[in-house]
Write a structure and sequence with these properties.
Strand content: 5-15%
Radius of gyration: 17 Å
CATH class: Alpha Beta
Largest sheet: 2 strands, parallel
Number of domains: 1
Low-confidence stretches: none
Helix content: 40-55%
Shape: globular
CATH topology: Rossmann fold
CATH architecture: 3-Layer(aba) Sandwich
Strand order of the largest sheet: 1-2
Length: 203
């Protein structure tokens, strides 16, 4: 879980005014990230920033500074504990009660966002795909997670909001993919219970 933790469209509205002046920079960053999907790089974060700097014709230092400001100060800094989606909070409580380990497998460092929502504790693994060297839909981040969690990828339930990245990454790893949010679907705790084969008494 990562982008599924909070209401993404609502958060865009919350920080939209502050992000608007950076819209060209943000689009260049998204394009730079996407240009590395499907490939492996030993120093992926540096490669992304280098590509970003080249697209905007700015220095690496300026690219890094602006990226930190946009992603950490504005985006992550705008999150609060109350922004955690209720269905996700219920799911985390259920997993913890049952002793089922939970992890974050994100394309980018999730620590600032988790800290802003008071969610830094309780994770068996915090994964940053840029540090692993391969973005989703490659399965590397999920394979890295199971090494730390002491299980196999076929035992993973990967909860994500994007079919093209999260879904493909799960399938490439042999894991189960659960899209969230998914309009019209049963609440996340119910779907997790079904996938995990839990009876109502166990929840």
């Amino acid at each position: 879980m990562d982008g599924t933790l909070y209401d993404l469209p609502m958060h865009r509205l919350r920080v939209g005014c502050r992000l608007f002046r950076h819209r060209r920079f943000i689009q260049a960053w998204i394009d730079s990230v996407d240009s590395f999907r499907g490939s492996r790089e030993p120093d992926l974060q540096t490669a992304i920033v280098r590509t970003l700097a080249a697209r905007l014709e700015i220095s690496l230092e300026e690219a890094n500074d602006r990226l930190h400001h946009v992603l950490d100060d504005i985006w992550a800094g705008g999150l609060r504990p109350r922004h955690l989606r209720p269905s996700v909070a219920q799911s985390l409580q259920m997993l913890d009660r049952l002793g089922i380990p939970r992890a974050i497998a994100s394309d980018h460092d999730p620590s600032r966002k988790l800290g802003a929502m008071n969610l830094s504790e309780g994770w068996a693994y915090l994964g940053d795909a840029t540090a692993v060297g391969a973005l989703k839909p490659l399965p590397d981040i999920l394979e890295h997670a199971v090494e730390h969690m002491g299980c196999h990828t076929v035992e993973l339930v990967h909860v994500g909001d994007r079919e093209d990245t999260d879904g493909e990454s799960a399938r490439n790893a042999g894991a189960v993919f659960l899209r969230e949010p998914y309009p019209g679907a049963a609440p996340l705790p119910v779907r997790l219970r079904i996938i995990l084969g839990l009876s109502i008494d166990e929840v």
